[in-house]
Amino acid sequence: MAIRHKALLFVATCGFIGYLPFAPGTYTSVLGCILLYLFPFTSLASNAVFVTGLLVFSIICINSLPLEKKDPGYVVIDELAGMYITMIGHRPTLINILAAFALFRIFDIWKPFPVNKAEELKKGYGIVADDVVAGVYANCILTGFTALGRLL
Fold it and tell me: Can you tell me the distance from the alpha carbon of 52 to that of 58, in angstroms, rounded to the nearest whole number?
């Protein structure tokens, strides 16, 4: 296996987490929670720039791999991006991160419309798009919970 291919797999699998048995997307979402907690963003702008770069990088990386099926379970960098999208605009407190994790996993697994339609896009675009939409849904709900918490 060429070094380039191994490097792409390392990135797409988030350090080979994607090869862990049973629910590698959940493990990667946990990794996202840990990274968000340990290395919080100082501004909304820096978070948005990082997420945009991560999305572009993810799609390029996934599209460069010869995938044997449409959305192989070992490709999990999209879950990492989804967690970061879920947390855009939210303080990385433990409660926010735990709520973000639960909400993101619910929407990513359930795949309500248009999450299910987003994954129909070809190649890396579809692999990443469903997690983007799931992250947006989760972010909106988290924003609602945060606003409700301020009212109470």
Answer: 10
